[in-house]
Amino acid sequence: MTNFHDKVIYQIYPKSFKDTTGNGIGDLKGIIEKLPYLDELGVDMLWLNPFYPSPQNDNGYDVADYTAIDPMFGTWEDFDTLVQEADKRGISLMLDMVLNHTSTEHEWFQKALAGDKKYQDYYLLREAQADGSLPTNWESKFGGKAWSKFGDTDLYYLHLYDKTQADLDWRNPEVRQELYDAVNFWLEKGVKGLRFDVINVIGKDEQLSDADDGVGKKLYTDTPIVHEYIQELNRETFGKYDDVVTVGEMSSTTVKNGIDYSHPDRDELSMIFSFHHLKVDYKDGDKWTKAPFDFLELKKLLDEWQRGMNEGGGWNAVFWNNHDQPRANSRFGDVDNYPFETATMLAQTIHFLSGTPFVYQGEEIGMTNPNFNKIDDYVDIESHNAYQELKNRGMSEAEVMEIIQEKSRDNARTPMQWDDSKNAGFTDGTPWLKIPENYKERNVESKRVSQSIRDYYKQLIQLRKEYKLIQEGSYESILLGHQSIYAYMREYEGQKLLVLNHFYGDEAIIDLPQHLLKKEARYLLGNKGERQLEEKFMMQPYETVAFLLD
After folding, report:
1. CATH T-level topology, domain 107-167
2. pTM, whole model, 2 decimals?
3. Is 249 considered catalytic here?
């Protein structure tokens, strides 16, 4: 198995990265054009969100063909060129595999609708209950019921997500074989990384039943059979290669399952994404609320996953940002008064943890939430649904828009800001999603803030490659109860790394334990320049600093 502990993975949302045709939508040629930029940053692998043919009801996660390229993004020639040109720079591609469901426009679903029994067995079709109610009382994760009428039959099909995303029946060996064939197709095309979308919900029971809570999550998430399926997926596809890196997106999972999914002896996945730390600003667990983030809860969750995975031999993918999350700097920092400090503190917190760091496009130049003030400027279906729902609850337009501005998935999806020319250098046409107004100050070419953030990212990426301590070290938190500082230690073969991260815009003092002060401390990296380690250590707003202790 390839060593991925020294790698840093960069996530590209192709639709918003770089448009070369003027149609306002990013494309594969745009990624090729920007490979020198990515090479200079020092990243090892590019995770691309889906570019397969799709009706785009869920931004490409409603796949209509697993082994084709949507013409909107380019051609086979473009794809092959991208693989070759990236490879010349030592960069490989990670593709998104959406294997829990297909689009209802997929040929399989269409054949099933047309009455083909073979393809009807590809999906979870059930009759209504005896009293005429839906097959189960489960909720869809996108709101509403998880069942829709299957054509003009008496059957219903399961969709845990949008009603145009029909869940596949993984209990059918023919379905599994079709999916393994699709994965192998891309591996043969030179892909070296696979990201499996919501992979821990594929293990539904044969007998589907009502849930006590009416939601159903527990009945299909992390079921024991999921591990068997992933082991089979490993055997039949990527496990035949010794240089493929895999990551599973795990919905509502636990540390114990996280260890099992990613422990090298279990032949499942290289690493997993978990999301608990990104729900600390959900009031009473509800995403569509406005609440300050709970810092102590954030630390507790990061600590629980770091300690648990480290001790159990699992492996974390560590990240703040992706295509479904608001920008972390807008969420956990102060992008107006401390743009450089906020971005670098958050980056250092993550990059020095145990796990493989993921950088989401634009994060490395300090891109922020756009704060659009009209709902029409947002495209995301989930945001529009939430807008209606919040209005129905009697909230004012202003209150609703404040929540949308903070929580919309479109916060991460605005086009990449390359320079200060029209449309931030993303397109000559009309961008599919509006460009944030601050693009003139926050862009790749901007010397003041963006370039200094990017230079800092380059250092973090380089240090991971240089230090076994950062790649392989154990993890231990210190001063977990401190109200504004997240501090932790990494240790490897006697060498220690002390990392101090201040999450607020005031000054804060940290009383360091005596045993640390007895060590020889060498400054490694910080966003306020070189510091000396002292017993009463004063930290500036959003300061981060790391010391090597010998």
Report:
1. Oligo-1,6-glucosidase; domain 2 (3.90.400)
2. 0.97
3. yes
